[in-house]
Amino acid sequence: MNLHSLHKQLSYLPDTPVMPALFVGHGSPMNAIEDNEFSQRWNELGNTLPYPKAILCISAHWETRGTFVTAVEQPKTIHDFYGFPKELFAQQYPVKGFPELAVDIADNSKNFGIEPEYEWGLDHGSWSILKHLYPKADIPVIQLSIDYTKDMNYHVELAREFNYLRRKGVLIIGSGNMIHNLRMVRLKDDDFNTPYAYDWAMEINEKFKAKILDNDIRSLTEYRTLDSSINLAIPSAEHYIPLLYTLALKEKDENVIIFNDRVIAGSLSMTSVIIN
Fold this sequence. Notes:
Layout: H1 3-9, E1 21-25, H2 37-48, E2 54-64, E3 68-70, H3 86-89, H4 99-107, E4 115-117, H5 124-133, E5 141-147, H6 152-161, H7 163-166, E6 170-176, H8 199-213, H9 217-221, H10 230-233, H11 241-247, E7 256-259, E8 263-264, E9 268-269, E10 272-275
Parallel strand pairs: 1-6, 2-5, 2-6, 3-4
Antiparallel strand pairs: 1-10, 7-10, 8-9
C-alpha cells in the first residue's frame, strides 16, 4: 500500500508539516511527580513542539508476543510498579484514546501483523512523561507494544512504516532508557537522580551518542557488537528498543538533537533524542 492511499484512509486527520519524533529516557517512575531537571525539560518541550493531533507512544513497559496497538476509548492509567509513595499510585492521566487511528495503523501494517488491543491502557513509560509534556491530557494517545520475540531489524522496519503518521500530525514517542541495568543501580545521598555513572556506562553512553549523531542506525541495531560491556548496559533489550523506533523515523536532512544527557544512579542513562 502506498503513502498516498494511506493518507486518503486517514482523511479524518489533516495533512501537516512533518512532526518531530522523540526518544525519551524516562528513568524512575518518581519523575512523574518530581520537579527536577528531567521533568522540567519535558515541560519545556511540550511548550515548544508543534501541537500534535494525536500521540503514538512505544513504551519499554508493554512487551507482548505479537505486536498490538491500543484501541480503547479511554485508556486506563496503569501503575506498573511497586514500593513507591502513595502519591505516585494516586496519579491519573485521564486522556482519550483514538480507536479509529489504532485500527487504521493495524490495517495499514498487515505485513507486520499488528492487531488492535482493547484491554491495555497507558503504562508509566507513557503517562509519566506525557503528564509533563502535555499536562492538560487533551491530546489522544495510543500505545504500541514491543514484540519481544522479534529481532532489532523487525522493530526498525516496523518503525519506518509509521513515517506517514508524522505527516498527519501524529507525534511518535519512544520511551525507555539507552542504558538500563537496575540490578547495578547505586544511589548517592538516597537520590535516584544524582548524576553518577560507572566508567563503562559513561563510555557506552558516549558511543551511543556518536552513532546517533552519525545516523549509524546499522551499528545501533547491531548494538551487541559495540562494546565489551554492552551486556552490563543492556541486560535485556526492552528499554533500548524504543530508541530504535525513534531513530528509524529520521528522514534525509532532518536534525538530531540530544537532550537530558545524563547517566544517573550508576547504570541508567536519561539521554534523550529529538528528530526534526
